[in-house]
Amino acid sequence: MAANNKARVEAFMARLAWRNPGETEFHQAVREVAESLIPFLAERPQYETARVLERMTEPDRIITFRVTWQDDAGQVRVNRAWRVQFNNAIGPYKGGLRFHPATTQSVLKFLGFEQTLKNSLTGLPMGGAKGGANFNPRGKSEAEVMRFCQAMMRELHRHIGPDTDVPAGDIGVGAREIGFLFGAYLRLANRFTGVFTGKALAFGGSALRPEATGYGAVYFLREMLAASRDEVAGKTAVVSGSGNVALHAIEKLTEFGAKVVTASDSDGFIHDAHGIDTERLAWLKDLKQARRGRVAEYAEHFGCEYHEGARPWAVPCQLALPCATENELDDADARGMVGNGVRAVAEGANMPCTGDAVRTFTANRILFGPGKAANAGGVTVSGLEQSQNALRIAWSREEVDARLQRIMGDIHEKCCADGAGADGFVDYVRGANIAGFRKVADALLAYGAV
Ligand code: NDP
Question: Partners of 321 in the beta sheet?
């Protein structure tokens, strides 16, 4: 980056850090975008004059509230919850809810900011938001999770609606939690509307929504490989996580002929040299989704390696899909992976790779799909769920899958259009940031000073 642009990035980031003290995850997400956008904006003064980037890094509003509930022993428990309504320039706010003890305002601001650009990239009319609570679902009974969801919705219902803000799931919020949250909303609001996505098929959900993020990440990976005349089949893949995104990424990778050798949770990872084939994946799904067990049990059952307290990045592979959480893959991991011959990395999770790790991949010409492009499949099918709810129809699995594949292909094309360098190498980070920015920025320009 030219010296004057570097100085502009630093000045922009210094002002942002001063306005948002201590919010390190939010700073990190904005820096990655600012590094792509500031050189682009330098040649487009209309955006600078209208202070578009400043506006896009300041949430429209943040709602913070207390959630009081009772555990099974009758003890009163208190948690903090948030809804960060980041930007609705191109559609109603849209983004998931996260239940995890490490949830903070900074994490939700980074996620809401990323979501705004991601939703724009899909081409669907969706603004960006994120929410959640510092509630830890681990070890809680089903009745406790239900009481927590109902208590949270007593406040949240005032702030959401099909034309205002449409939440979905994220870490710790799956089909069960969406059922409890949507059920509570129905009682409070007395309106059956498409106010949530990720609903079960029985009450307005879309076919393929659970699979969409993981499948979408693999569709994006396939596009990146195809653009450099390569393919998924025959490659070894390393995946982190064993939640919604990871399980469906493993499923699609296997279907496309890759051998997936790892999965993880917050306690450690399994290394299965035989590969997590269809039969083993069915066992793992049952373990994680129905029995809510730990991946260590997979290692015990199938007699493979288990590495407690470790992450899977030292396992040699050509394809890597971090699908657990933010900052789970650092620069040392990235260097090791480059040394081991990694060919492509697609972020199933949001910001799983640190900034330095991303720079290492890019500097070594590794195909790198950032989360806002690679994991956009989830929100894409959420957008399709909203359309189906509004039209009061339900598309078949095949129809939704065809639309998902087409949209992931379109996102890939947009990234190439804005990210290809003179030598033909595509910087997908730059491409996704610029392509996602354009639509929101043009809407803000049209609205005047709002
Ligand atoms: P789940 O709750 O279904 O699964 C999360 C997985 O990541 C679990 O295996 C969990 O392990 C592991 N994990 C969570 N926190 C940590 C941590 N601090 N360290 C190590 N492992 C951790 O969530 P999802 O699969 O839905 O989400 C995963 C990622 O994908 C997140 O970054 C999310 O924002 C992103 N994403 C999700 C979308 C969706 O549609 N669900 C859409 C787009 C992005 P454990 O069981 O031990 O907690």
Answer: 239
Phi-psi domain of 53 (left: phi exceeds 0; alpha: psi -120 through 50; beta: other)? alpha
| Confidence at residue 2, expressed as pLDDT on a 0 to 100 scale | 86
Distant-in-sequence, close-in-space partners of 419: CB < 8 Å, separation ≥ 6? 426, 427, 428, 429, 430, 431, 432, 434
Which residue is closest in CA terms to ligand 1's atom 2? Answer: 171
pTM for the model stands at 0.97
Active-site entry in 118, 130, 259, 372:
130
- Tell me the CA–centroid distance for residue 293 and ligand 1, in Å: 15
Question: Is 259 designated active site?
Answer: no
DSSP 173: B
Residue 304 token pair:
């493979």
Give how far the C-alpha of residue 338 lies from the chain's centroid of Cα atoms, to the nearest Å: 24
* DSSP three-state, residue 277: coil
Phi-psi sector, 327: left (phi>0), alpha (psi -120 to 50), beta: left
Domains in the chain: ranges and CATH:
3-56 (no CATH), 61-192 (3.40.50.10860), 212-374 (3.40.50.720)
Whole-number Å distance between alpha carbons of 369 and 344: 8
Residue the block writes with tokens 């909303």: 185
Instruction: Encode pLDDT of 6-31 as tens digits.
Output: 999 999 999 999 999 999 999 999 99
Residues of the chain with pLDDT under 50: none
| The two three-digit tokens of residue 44, written as one number | 């487009």
What is the distance between the alpha carbons of residues 277 and 259, in angstroms, rounded to a whole number?
Answer: 8
